[in-house]
Write a structure and sequence with these properties.
Layout (H helix, E strand, L loop, with lengths): L10 H7 L16 E4 L5 E3 L1 H15 L7 E5 L5 H11 L2 E4 L20 E4 L6 H10 L3 E5 L10 E4 L5 H18 L13 H4 L3
């Protein structure tokens, strides 16, 4: 594990959010993100790798204007985090069911021309991933130890089911995105708090 000051947030903030707690199932792809498996068979993700991938995701997203980004979360635990991210950055968000054809059918009223998509879970959000693949735009996906990585351009390993974990992830991502876009100069310029992103 890295020294605290090398992380985007203090190590204990990460640990309290449970962002590193996986589950009992692990796929072959996610094995190399796992730090250890506990005696109760729960897999623990490597905090260093989580932090690294959040940085990569922020850099990747920062190449795109907010209106070119689409963030999708079928999982309800991510809805408050998504809304806060959308409010902070201006990115388009879909909390709830992804409407089929939104990315692929220009004749639909809901049609949206995204250039990159981020999903909170590659399984419930798989229809959004398939549509993104059809039109050839990059996909960033938050993946727990049990996720597959098919059709994903960038995997961010994390607990993608917990409210605190998702809240912290989107809080950090919003802050880093705005810094890399030059909207804010440093962390203290960021108006939101982790609580704004986290479901009770």
């Amino acid at each position: 594990m890295a020294e605290t000051n090398q992380f985007l947030v203090a190590q204990d903030v990460y640990l309290k959010s449970g962002i590193h707690i996986g589950n009992k199932f692990k796929t072959k792809y996610m094995e190399h993100f796992i730090y250890k498996t506990r005696s109760d068979r729960l897999s623990i993700l490597n905090l260093q790798r989580i932090d690294e991938r959040i940085r990569v995701a922020a850099s990747f997203l920062s190449q795109y204007a907010p209106e070119d980004i689409l963030i999708v979360s079928r999982r309800e635990n991510g809805w408050k985090a998504l809304k806060a991210f959308g409010k902070a950055t201006g990115a388009k968000i879909i909390p709830g069911r992804y409407p089929p054809g939104m990315l692929t059918n220009p004749s639909l009223e809901i049609y949206y021309e995204a250039k990159i998509i981020l999903v909170t879970d590659s399984w419930p959000d798989r229809n959004a991933i398939l549509d993104a693949n059809k039109i050839g735009i990059p996909v960033i996906a938050l993946c727990d130890t049990n996720n597959q990585s098919n059709n994903i351009d960038l995997v961010v390993p994390c607990n993608n089911k917990g409210k605190k974990s998702l809240g912290l992830f989107f809080f950090i991502l919003a802050k880093e995105y705005l810094k890399k876009r030059g909207v804010i100069a440093n962390d203290s310029d960021f108006k939101g708090t982790v609580e704004d992103f986290t479901e009770e």
